[in-house]
Design brief:
It is built from four helices and five strands, in the order E-H-H-H-H-E-E-E-E. By secondary structure, it is an alpha+beta fold. The longest helix has 17 residues.
Length: 145
């Protein structure tokens, strides 16, 4: 977990899968830290009147969990995110267990970047998140003479 992996240690096609139950505590901590007090996340009455019928976990919080799977389980902590794209394809409710599949889709030697992709699904099999992002890795330090 959180191993420092180098660019050279990574290969296209490497994949990890991890599941996490989204809790009320996760949402409360995220909302308190970010100030994202959107009523669909915090107001049961308001959320009950939406097409979802109940409160949603913040989507960008779920996306953040996806990136944590990437760094903790797949690529390590050396790469720096330079572009992230997320598609919120379905609702995530508090109490849902979400399974994240994260994989390395491309490796670009010329600029030391990897493109990673992800898909997250709830226990019913509904995809709730898709992601594609770029990580840049530092150049190797020259060998001492």
């Amino acid at each position: 977990m959180y191993d420092p992996k180098s660019f050279d240690d990574l290969s296209v096609g490497e994949k990890v899968t991890l599941s996490k139950t989204i809790t009320e505590a996760d949402g409360a901590l995220y909302i308190a830290a970010t100030g994202d007090f959107g009523p669909v996340h915090v107001d049961e009455v308001y959320a009950g009147a939406t097409r979802f019928g109940k409160r949603l976990a913040p989507g960008i919080m779920v996306a953040g969990l996806c990136t944590s799977v990437l760094t903790s389980e797949l690529v390590g902590t050396i790469g720096v995110s330079i572009e992230d794209r997320f598609w919120f394809t379905g609702p995530v409710f508090y109490g849902d267990t979400i399974t994240f599949d994260v994989w390395i889709a491309e490796k670009r030697e010329e600029n030391r970047t990897i493109i990673w992709q992800a898909s997250a699904r709830n226990t019913g099999g509904l995809e709730v998140l898709k992601a594609e992002a770029t990580l840049k890795f530092p150049r190797k330090k020259p060998a001492a003479a």
